[in-house]
Amino acid sequence: MKNKTQQTTGPIGVFDSGYGGLTILNQIRAQMPEYDYLYLGDNARTPYGTRSFEVVYEFTLQAVKKLFELGCPLVILACNTASAKALRTIQQNDLPTIDPTRRVLGVIRPTAECIGELTQTRHVGILATSGTIKSESYPMEVHKLFPDVTVTGEACPMWVPLVENNEFDSEGADYFIQKNINQLLEKDPEIDTIILGCTHYPLLIKKIRQFTPEHIQLVPQGEYVAHSLQDYLRRHPEMDVRCSKNGISRFLTTESTAKFEESASIFLSQDKVEVESITLE
Ligand code: DGL
Predict the structure, then answer these.
(1) Is there a cis peptide before residue 213, judged by omega within 30 degrees of 0?
(2) Strand partners, 123
(3) Residue 167: exposure state from Cβ atoms within 10 A (0-12, 13-18, ≥19)
(4) Position 160 pLDDT exceeds 50
(5) Mean pLDDT taken over the chain
(6) Could you give the C-alpha distances from 244 to 65, 75, 100, 271, in angstroms and in order?
(7) Residue 180: what pLDDT?
(8) 46 CA from centroid of ligand 1 (Å)
(9) 156 ligand 1 Cβ < 6 A
(10) Its pTM surpasses 0.90
(11) What are 119-151's pLDDT values in tens digits?
């Protein structure tokens, strides 16, 4: 059994609660176009950001198992909420019994690693879901690497629903975006760098920029996650050979395929996205 799983080659799995992970997939594919990818969006149960630790862990584990079943040797949790609430338990408790030769990686650590170089004032803001903010994962990861940096978080519970409902460019989005940015900057006016700590937020970047003072840089995480994955595969050739390389991406959703196809083609700036519907349990 072990030898068999060790020989398994397949696409890199990319998981998110919905469409947000497509912003990560975009960057990963741009940097590593030769690899195959299998994207899974749990659109039927999104958002995860306001759900309990137990529920996010249970849903994420179901998704990881499904992607393993479909042949992925490596899965990226392209979701901060899942990375914050489920990654460590899956890595430490579940992987050893499911298949110790496969790997699950998250997006928080690679993002935390870039912070030291980006901030001059050493005051950084994180915009993320309530789940990610409450988990304190960002301050913990950043302080391990850069103890001198002050990290202030602001939960933006309305932002993911705006994206999932295609309202990211609407006037209705203005109120919530302006409100959360103002609240963050009131908590710490010295912030010079804001991390978009939710993979959905790059879709809102025009509006976020509009309501953020010009001297503050906005940092979407896709590029850093892509670099970190590339570096990981360079350092782990035994995993790299197991990742198939035909330049093919496939998409799965737990919701209706029509809705996913329409939104995903916008997010990926791609004419046509073919998607299959699956159930997670
Ligand atoms: N894209 C997920 C993240 O990065 C959104 C979570 C949600 O479903 O609320 O946190």
Answers:
(1) no
(2) 150
(3) middle
(4) yes
(5) 94
(6) 19, 13, 19, 24
(7) 98
(8) 8
(9) no
(10) yes
(11) 999 999 999 999 999 999 999 999 999 999 999
Q: Which residue puts its alpha carbon closest to atom 9 of ligand 1?
A: 49
The domain over range 109-221 is classified in CATH as 3.40.50.1860 = yes
| Mean pLDDT within 146-172 | 92
Q: Where in the chain is the domain with CATH 3.40.50.1860?
A: 2-106+223-277, 109-221
Q: Distance (Å, rounded) from C-alpha 23 to C-alpha 84? A: 18
Q: Are 98 and 173 in contact (CB under 8 A)?
A: no
204 alpha carbon to ligand 1 midpoint, in Å? 13
CB of 199 within 6 A of ligand 1: the answer is yes
197: nearest Cα among 137, 257, 281, 265:
137
Q: Which residue has tokens 């170089």? A: 117
Q: What is the CATH class of 2-106+223-277?
A: alpha beta
> Is ligand 1 within 6 A of the CB of residue 51?
no
137 lines ligand 1 (CB under 6 A): no
N- to C-terminal Cα separation, the chain: 24
- From the CA of 136, how far away is ligand 1's center (Å)? 15
Nearest to 199 by CA among 267, 256, 144: 267
DSSP, collapsed to helix, strand or coil, labels residue 67 as: helix
pLDDT of residue 6: 52
pLDDT digits (tens, 9 = 90+) for 23-66: 999 999 999 999 999 999 999 999 999 999 999 999 999 999 99
